[in-house]
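Exercise 7.
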Amino acid sequence: MKTLKDVISLKFKTSESEGVIFHGEGQQGDYITLELKKAKLVLNLNLGINQLGSIFGHTSVMTGSLLDDHHWHSIIIERHGRNINLTLDRHMQHFRTNGEFDYLDLDYEITFGGMPFSGKPSSKSRKNFKGCMETINYNGNNITDLAKRKKLEPSNVGNLSFSCVEPHTVPVFFNATSYLEVPGRPSQDLFSVSFLFRTWNPNGLLLFSNFADDLGNVEIDINEGKVSVHINVTQVKKNRIDISS
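Solution. The predicted structure, written as tokens, is:
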């Protein structure tokens, strides 16, 4: 396809911070890739190679954050030549692509949810999207409906189900006065803890535990937006270890 205008829209939700949402490329150096990177949305676009090479035409735009929250997010990409409107959850960002071309030449297939392995380093390092998509629309074509009715020919559908599986994790919400107390393990000489958390507050106590036999304690907290670990040991000279990240 050689297009001057493109409109691509879809909704997605995921618990993963990385993954290719869709990808297309051509023989003239053109490509378009929409993906999640560190839970942010990244659009990479190139409308072709000129005498200066493909890097000059490469355009990358990042928007959003914390998109791995397993809530539905909507995306609309509207392109007219080099003018792009990228809308994420009703927040629109306008930009112009680099280079000097107006047409997007996609000679190969367009893939949703991943990209085919092309032998290029970029295709090897990218993860497939893991999550749910709905109402995928590409230039007026309802891709979701066509895929479900097997009207996309030729097409390759791998491990696709037309339902959205909910994650099995059970979140716990804490307010300013709540806490969760669990029994310790006094006979263990190893202390290990892991959890996921999300908060808008810059300060707060995440975990506290006393060691047995009055040997000290361990504390994990958020201080000015940074996670800090404090280990107090009562029976040694250097009795406090502080780690901040």
